[in-house]
Design goal:
The complex is a heterodimer of chains A (285) and B (155). Chain A is built from twelve helices and 14 strands. By secondary structure, chain A is of the alpha+beta class. Chain A folds into three domains: 47 residues, Uridine Diphospho-n-acetylenolpyruvylglucosamine Reductase, domain 2 (2-Layer Sandwich); 111 residues, Uridine Diphospho-n-acetylenolpyruvylglucosamine Reductase, domain 3, CATH 3.30.465; 101 residues, 2-Layer Sandwich (Enolase-like, domain 1). Chain A has a five-stranded antiparallel sheet with strand order 4-5-10-6-7. A four-stranded antiparallel sheet of chain A has the order 11-12-13-14, with helices on both faces. In chain A, strand 8 and strand 9 form a beta hairpin. In chain A, helix 10 runs antiparallel to helix 11 and helix 11 crosses helix 12. The longest helix of chain A is centred in the C-terminal third of the chain and has 19 residues. Chain A is globular, with a radius of gyration of 19 Å. Chain B folds into two domains: 77 residues, Beta-grasp domain (Ubiquitin-like (UB roll), Roll), CATH 3.10.20.30; 64 residues, DNA polymerase, domain 1, CATH 1.10.150.120. Chain B contains five helices and five strands. In chain B, strands 2-1-5-3-4 form a five-stranded mixed sheet, covered by helices on one side. In chain B, helix 2 crosses helix 5. Classes of the chains: A alpha+beta (285), B alpha+beta (155). Chains A and B meet through helix 2 and helix 6 of A and strand 4 and helix 3 of B.
């Protein structure tokens, strides 16, 4: 039986109160939302915080809305809420579809998109997709707001650039930038490899292809992006070669689920599938 | 310094007031303070579904939620289903279809099904399988469970 060590629990109802608690307790405090990862880490004694700052009563952090060409998702929106939200389903079905299949129904009912990003579990899917979509994250501390690209947010396994006194408020996803695809291979309930592609309409946006769930954090596949930019709409052996070259440079190690070699194979496969999905094609193999 | 909190919740239809420590898990509050032993502790990692309860209608793993999180909420465990003399329709269907063997996963399965049918009264077989994929039965009697749920799907 795994039990967390005792800690203090705070339940602010305003953002200002939450920020002030985080400022006061610094490294000793953790924001707390769905708890799907934080409580597990506390129970396994991987994490040890003296203060939980529960954000769930700050309802403004839950909202999902479209403003012009931006889909704005509150950090506290749960996976189930995002999956069921009409605005997300209409404007960003690739995200609604992913959120509908994360982990299991209980995790989806309580786990939040913001918690998923901030915990930065290397096997998490949303950071990979949001990086390819070039989502912008709004962080706030008592000193003000700052914006960070999703692709720059996660810096390592369980590490982000969020400071202890900062909260992730919302995720802004630009809409209409291109066609998107997300593909992954899941073993048990953990993603073995995931990849996201956003292929720009004409020359409006450069192609973005990101791999994740294989190394410590999501990474752009640069040779692949360059190949697609030069050869738009073509899924051939040269594309696979470009993906393979990118994946060969990733820092992938053997772990309890798979050898590094097998994981590289999966990473190449899902990247090709994600590109094909974005193009509306069925990938071979 | 760890703190205690007064909470008020509706537990299986009854108003309950309690004082809980910050770090008390919902599963321990339900099993130890309220003797609701239909809530099963198994994997402790939100994988198996044996400890599933409904909080405001949502399925949650009570092993990975704090008791204090249920302040102002409605919590339903298997003990709160059906009445004194009658079973809930989901329980009836599980009996009729023989959808249980050892019974350890059954409370969690049935509550997961309640949540599914509340949000989707006519789920397809694929939707039933997807929804229940987070509830593990080690007797592996999944076929009967899916047939029981299909019998409840309004057509």
């Amino acid at each position: 039986m795994m039990l967390p060590k005792p800690f203090d629990y705070h339940r602010p109802t305003t953002l200002d109160d939450a920020l002030s608690l985080l400022a006061r307790h610094g490294d000793d405090a953790s924001p707390y939302a769905g708890g799907t990862e934080l409580l597990l880490a506390m129970k396994m004694h991987f994490a040890d915080y003296d203060h939980f700052v529960d954000l769930k009563r700050i309802t403004a952090l839950r909202s999902i809305a479209r403003h012009g060409d931006v889909l704005s998702i509150g950090a506290l929106a749960t996976h189930a809420e995002i999956a069921a939200d009409g605005v997300v389903r209409d404007n960003l079905p690739v995200l609604a579809g992913l959120c509908a299949s994360i982990a299991n129904a209980r995790v989806r009912a309580t786990g939040t998109i913001g918690g998923n990003l901030c915990f930065a579990e290397p096997r998490a899917d949303p950071p990979v997709l949001l990086s390819a979509l070039d989502a912008q994250l709004c962080l706030r501390s008592m000193h003000g707001n700052r914006w960070v690209s999703a692709g720059e947010f996660v810096t390592g396994a369980l590490e982000t650039i969020r400071a202890p006194d900062e909260l992730l408020l919302r995720i802004d996803v630009p809409l209409g930038m291109g066609k998107t695809g997300y593909e992954r291979v899941v073993h048990g309930h953990r993603t073995m490899a995931g990849a996201a592609a956003m292929l720009g309409r004409d020359t409006v946006a450069a192609p973005r292809v990101w791999a994740g769930c294989v190394a410590a954090h999501p990474v752009p596949l640069v040779a692949t992006q360059n190949y697609i930019a030069a050869n738009p709409g073509i899924v051939d052996d040269n594309l696979t070669e470009a993906i393979t070259a990118d994946v060969a440079m990733l820092d992938i190690t053997d772990d309890e689920d798979a050898s590094a070699e097998y994981r590289r194979h999966l990473a190449v496969t899902v990247a090709r599938r994600a590109i094909a999905a974005a193009l509306g094609e069925k990938a071979s193999a | 310094m760890p703190t205690s909190h007064k909470i008020t919740l509706t537990l299986n239809g009854n108003l309950v007031e309690a004082t809980v420590a910050s770090h008390t898990l919902l599963i321990d509050f339900l099993r130890h303070s309220h003797a609701l032993h239909g809530v099963k502790r198994s994997c402790d990692m939100q994988i198996c579904g044996a400890c599933t309860v409904l909080v405001d209608g949502c399925p949650v793993s009570s092993c990975t939620m704090l008791a204090v999180d249920t302040d102002d909420a409605a919590v339903l465990t298997i003990e709160g289903l059906g009445g004194q003399d009658e079973l809930d329709p989901v329980q009836e269907a599980f009996l009729e279809y023989g959808a249980l063997q050892c019974g350890f996963c059954t409370p969690g399965m049935i509550l997961a099904v309640k949540a599914l049918l509340a949000s989707n009264p006519a789920p397809s077989r694929a939707q039933i399988r997807h929804h229940l994929s987070g509830n593990i039965c080690r007797c592996t009697g999944y076929q009967k469970i899916i047939e029981a749920v299909e019998s409840l799907a309004r057509t």
